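Complex record, two chains
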Amino acid sequence: MKARIDFIASGGVTSPAGFYAGATYAGIKKKAVTGLDLAILYSEMPCAAAALFTTNKIKAAPVLLSQEHLKTERAAAVIVNSGCANACTGAQGLADARETASIVATNIGINTEDVVVASTGVIGQPLPMGLMKAGIGRIVLSREAGHDFAKAIMTTDTVPKETAVTVRDGGVSFSIGGVAKGAGMIHPNLATMLAFVTTDAVVEPDFLKTALREAADISFDMLSIDGDTSTNDTLLLMANGKAGNAPVSAGGDLASAFQQALNEVCIYLAKAIARDGEGATKLIEVTVSGAASLADARLAARTVVSSPLVKTAVHGGDPNWGRVIAAVGRSGAAIEEAKTDLYIGNICLFKAGRPLNDNQEKAAAALKKSEIPIEVRLNLDEGTATAWGCDLSAEYVAINSEYMT
Amino acid sequence: MKARIDFIASGGVTSPAGFYAGATYAGIKKKAVTGLDLAILYSEMPCAAAALFTTNKIKAAPVLLSQEHLKTERAAAVIVNSGCANACTGAQGLADARETASIVATNIGINTEDVVVASTGVIGQPLPMGLMKAGIGRIVLSREAGHDFAKAIMTTDTVPKETAVTVRDGGVSFSIGGVAKGAGMIHPNLATMLAFVTTDAVVEPDFLKTALREAADISFDMLSIDGDTSTNDTLLLMANGKAGNAPVSAGGDLASAFQQALNEVCIYLAKAIARDGEGATKLIEVTVSGAASLADARLAARTVVSSPLVKTAVHGGDPNWGRVIAAVGRSGAAIEEAKTDLYIGNICLFKAGRPLNDNQEKAAAALKKSEIPIEVRLNLDEGTATAWGCDLSAEYVAINSEYMT
C-alpha cells in the first residue's frame, strides 16, 4: 500500500509531537516588523540530528559552534536570533555563541552540547550579549509557538515560511514540520537561509543524514535569489522519535515515505523562500529536461533562474526567451541549438532551434501571472532538474542599498 | 631607454594610420539614440588579425562566420550592426551574416573572407537584410569617422567608448586605437561586448595573438556588469603595418612597449564599459592582493565585483564590508579570516580579522565618490588581480524589464 502524505492546515515546526517553541523581542533588531527577534525550538526528548551548513569559507561563529556540537549527532534545542549574523567577529564571536548555548542549556536544563545556535543579520557586528541574556530569560515555551518562531527568525522576509505534513504508512503515523527564513544572500550550495525541520519519527541517524542531503539537493540547493551565498546558512533536521515507530532506515519499510514527505516539506519551504525573495513579485520555476546528465540539468536550471537578465525580463513581463537560451549556453551544460525547445509560461517560443515569435503575445500574457514556469528541453539525454527563484525588481535594489545603515 | 606611451586627445579606432570608418542609420533599431546603427571599419592595407569570441556555447551567426573568416588570420574590414544580435536564428542567420560580408566586400572591393561581421541587440530576431543592404550602400568611409563608428555600435550604452595611444620606442613610432560597446550581458570570460582595436604597427601574427590574450586577461576578462555572458562577444585586434617598423615579435625590442600600450587601451575600454554599465552610477574597482595564487586573486576579485549585494551596497553608499568578505568566502579562493584586511574607498574596515567599525563614517563618505576602490588583502601569498564593475541600481531593472518589448 502506498503511503499517504497530507499537509496539516496551519502546520509548522512544532506540529510533530514533543516539539515546543517560544520567541521574544530582545531588541537586537532596531525595527522588528514581526515584533520578535529571538526564538528557541525545543524537543522534550533529545533528537537524532543531521545538518548542512554554508559552503562559504567564511563561516559565522554560530555555524562553527553548531558544527562542533553536532558531532554528537544529537540535539535538543535551537536558539536563533535575527538582526545580527555574528559573522567575522573572531574569537569574541565564538565565545558569544558558546555563552548563548550555555545560557539556553541552563535555563531549560539540558546539556550545552545539545544546543544548536543560529544567527542571521548584519555581518561584522558583535552579538549584544546583554540583550541576548535578558531575552532568553523571557522566552516561554509552548506547543503552539512554532508560528512565533517562524516570525522571529525573519529578516527582510515579508511572510513567515512554515509547513507540516502527516505521513501514514501501514499502521505507522508520524509528522514532519519545517520552518525557514530567506529573502536575501540566497544562492545554491545550500541556499543562504536558515531552515529547521522536525519530525517525531524514530529515524536511524545514518539514514537521517542521507535523507536530508537528498532532500536538500532537490530543494534548497536549487534555489537562488541573488547569487550571494551567506556565511550563516544552516539546515537542521531533528528527529525526536516520539511517534514510536520501528526506526526508519535505508531500504526499510518507511524509508521511501519518509524521504518523500521530507522532500515535500523542503521543496515547500524552498519555493516559499523563492516567492518571498527580496523585492520579488513573481516565483520563477525553471525546469531543464533532456540534458546530457543530471549535473548538466542542475547547472543549466540554476544558471537560468539566477540570470539577472532573465529575472528582469520576467519582472517586466517581457518574453525575452533569448536571455534564457543565452543563460543555458553560458552555464557549461551541453546544448545543441538545433535540438533545443523552450517554453515560457507553457507557451513554446523556440522549437528545434527555430524562433516561434508569433507566440510572443501569448507568452506575454502568461508572464502576467504570479508563478512563471520556464522549461528548456535540451533533447540530448534524460537529465532533468527544477530550480526556483524570483524576479529582480527595483525594490530589491532599494532593500539592499540601505540594509545596514 | 623606456618606451613612451601617450594618450591621443579625442583618439579612437581610426587614429592609427590607414584606418577608415563610416556609419549610417539603417533603421534596424527603432530608436537609435545616437542616430546611427550600422558601421564599417576598414584598413587600406589587409591586416594581421587576432580575435577572441564569446565562451557561450550558443554563438550568434556573426560569431560563427567571423571565426570561419579569421582562420586566415587576416582581415581588412569589419561590419557591425546594433539593434539585432542575429543569434538563435539558425541557418538563415548564418546565410544573412554571410551575405552581409559579401555585400561589404563587393562595395569596398576586397575579399569576402577579409570581412569580420559583428552584431549586437535582441536575440532571436532575423536580421532585416533589406535595411542592411540599403544601409551599407549609404556608408561613406573617412579617416575621421571613428567617432561615428563608436556611436553606431552602442545599444544601451549612454556614452561612446574609444581611445588611442601613440607609442615611441627608440626611433620607432606607431599607434594603437580602440573602440568598444558594453552596457549589459557583461561578464568575465570575455566580458560581453564588442571591442575593436587597431594598430598601424607591423606585428608578427603569433605575437599578435598572445598579446591580445594577455591584454584581455587583465582587462575585458576582469569586467562584470551583470553576470550574464552574451552570445555575441567579439574582441578583434587588427594590425595593418602602415608604420613600417621591424615586426613586433615575442622577445623582440618592441614587444614590451606594444604589450604595455595594448594593455592600456584595453583596460581603458574595459573601465569605460564598467563605468557605463546599465543603470550604473559608480565605477567599482576591486583589487585582491596577497592571494594564494593568481587564479585565486582573479576569482576573488571577479566574485566581489559581481556580487549583487556588494553592488547594491555601493549604490546606497553603505560601507557593508561584510558582504565583500562573504563574497570572497564563497568565491572558492583560499582565505583565512584572521589574516584578512579589507579597505573600501581606501578606508580600512577590517584588519587581521577584526572589524574597525569606528571607520564606517569615513568609508560612507568615500562611497559618495564616483569611483569606488575596494581592496582585499588576503596576506597568504603574492597573487594580485584587479576587476571592474559598477553599482546595481533600480535603473538597471527598469532598462532590462522592458528591453525587448
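Note: Chain B has two domains: 4-271, 283-401.
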